[in-house]
Amino acid sequence: MPYNLLKGKKGIIFGALDDKSIAWRTALKCHEEGAQLVLSNAPVALRMGEINKLAEAVNAPVIGADVTNMDDLKNLFEESMKHFGGGIDFILHSIGMSLNVRKGKTYTSLDYGFGQKTMDISAMSLHRILRTAWDLDAINEGGSVVALTYIAAQRVFPDYSEMADAKALLESVTRSFGYHYGLRKKVRVNSVSQSPTRTTAGSGVKGFDGFITYAEKMSPLGNASGDECGDYLVTLFSDLTKMVTMQNLFHDGGFSSTGVTEAVINQMEK
């Protein structure tokens, strides 16, 4: 049931690839809550994905942008402000890519060239997005920016490899830029650490199926779905969370605070 929490608000959503992606589910939720949207992804992802279906469903233009290219981002923000007839109220950063993970390289045998690309695309892209918005004064007073992260930034998950380092950097950018943007325009910048979710990208991590089952057993409420994450993000984009900023917020059914569960113990004792 919609509550019109985002009525009159305008936002950019980065990273919707297909209907399994959290960005896709979030776009649907934001639209349902009354927001106007612009969708963006890398040109290669636009060719691979099905984003035009989403664009039709949420009545949004698609503007491609390479998030490592400042000119692309400048164009994206300028075109978005033209489309909206003014500034932007919220942004979702749902961007991540690791060639090392994709090519099966372990953490102890990383290709450093690949690693630099991982950091650039998965973490420093948030700094570039915020810097571009800052330079263009694109985000409205009291706006909200959220980046999706994962608990591997704090704990070791061996097969998550260098993406753990990227997420740690992403969370640092969230805090540091959040400080400056809060002082300047009361813009909130947070990260949301989501449960393992069966997205196209997530499913590419080695051992993912086993881990998602483990996380389900370790979470008192179970794993949070992509739709449930979308609901949570709506609250962070809304005016109900105007004093929440520079936080890493766990949306994981209690996984992050649980040492062990009866279900896991029973499984180990079998």
Looking at CATH, the homologous superfamily is: NAD(P)-binding Rossmann-like Domain
Number of domains: 1
Number of helices: 10
* SS class: alpha/beta
Query: What is the third-level CATH name, the topology?
Result: Rossmann fold
Q: What's the CATH C level? A: Alpha Beta
CATH architecture: 3-Layer(aba) Sandwich
Strand order of the largest sheet: 2-1-3-4-5-6
Secondary-structure element series: EHEHHHEHHEHEHHEH
- Major β-sheet profile: 6 strands, parallel
User: Poorly predicted ranges (pLDDT <50, ≥5 residues)?
Assistant: none
- The rounded distance between the terminal residues' Cα atoms is 43 Å
Strand content: 5-15%
Find the count of extended strands (DSSP E, 2+ residues): 6
Q: From the alpha carbons, calculate the radius of gyration and give it in angstroms.
A: 18 Å
Helix content: 40-55%
Shape: globular
Task: Describe the protein's topology.
Layout: E1 10-14, H1 22-32, E2 36-40, H2 43-48, H3 51-58, H4 70-84, E3 88-93, H5 99-102, H6 112-136, E4 139-149, H7 163-185, E5 188-194, H8 208-218, H9 226-237, E6 248-251, H10 262-269
Parallel strand pairs: 1-2, 1-3, 3-4, 4-5, 5-6
Description:
By secondary structure, this protein is of the alpha/beta class. It has a single domain (10-269), classed as 3-Layer(aba) Sandwich (Rossmann fold). The chain is built from 10 helices and 6 strands. It has a 6-stranded parallel beta sheet, with helices on both faces. Helix 7 (163-185) links the parallel strand 4 (139-149) and strand 5 (188-194). Helix 1 crosses helix 9 (226-237) and helix 4 (70-84) runs parallel beside helix 6 (112-136). The longest helix has 25 residues, at 112-136. The termini are far apart. The model has no long low-confidence stretch (mean pLDDT 95).
